[in-house]
Amino acid sequence: MTYLGESAALLTSLCWSLNSVCFTVAGRRVGSASVNLLRLLMAWGLLVLLHLALYGQAFPMQAGAARLGWLGASGLIGFALGDAVLFEAFVLIGARLAMLLMTLSPIFSALLAWLFLGQSMGPAKVLAMAVTLGGIAWVVWGGGDQEAHPHLWRGVLLGVGGALGQSVGLVFSMKGLAGGFPPISANLIRVTAGLGALLLYFSATGRLRGTLGGLRDGRATAFIGLGAATGPVLGVVLSLVAIAKAPMGVAATLMSLSPVILLPVSHFVFREKLGGHAILGTLLALAGAAALFFV
């Protein structure tokens, strides 16, 4: 099929956009902690069924201790910690601005790859990073978001934390995927580790019953279920197809379009004020993030 990878990448962006809106709505009803735990619980069940259908076993027991360690750490950092702060950012500053801050993830990934993996980072990459940071700063300081988000700076810091968690998790995932390990199996290990860590934390702090109590809110549960299906499951599968069937730079660029897709959603659904600075700053940040994959 012509443009299969590009189509999958664009659908991935749509999934990320829908996923973020679902978790924003649910988080404002039952809290970000409930959203994080419940969506991992639902995603884990879906991934177990998918893994069973594809590989004939519910869990990749043949992964080996070292691989389990890398992927488990990736899931702990990415899903349990990074997403926890990201979902709180959704609640505080909305899906659009939180997802825009996630465009920092390529910058963090490039820096981590430079520091720990020995990958080069020339002047062109540094310039692309500066463009991305400039676009984000333009949106944040532009004056249109402060009125709508009274906890703007706390939300911004949490969004930055989410981007950093995703990047660190990605570096650990690269180690775990070495040798051609199936990405769906790797994702199941990551989700299992993240879910296990959250269950232990909420059990130890006596908050497990209250956190699971979010299931009593039918509307929030429906949004969490839809977000779990379109995020950790469908979105991940589509992203793997995109990377396999399209050039990396093209796929990565198309998969980073969520902030643009969310501009009209934020305006018409969440009633956010969107000035020219928000639109132009978003496009500038995305241009810088895209350039990282081509220079």
From TrEMBL:
> What keywords are annotated for this sequence in UniProt?
Membrane, Transmembrane, Transmembrane helix
Which Pfam family is an annotated match for this chain, by its short name?
EamA
Classify the source by domain of life. Answer: Bacteria
Q: Where are the transmembrane segments?
A: 37-56, 68-91, 97-117, 124-141, 153-172, 184-202, 222-243, 250-270, 276-294
Question: Domain EamA, which positions?
Answer: 5-140, 154-293
Q: Where is the signal peptide?
A: none
Listed name of the protein? EamA domain-containing protein
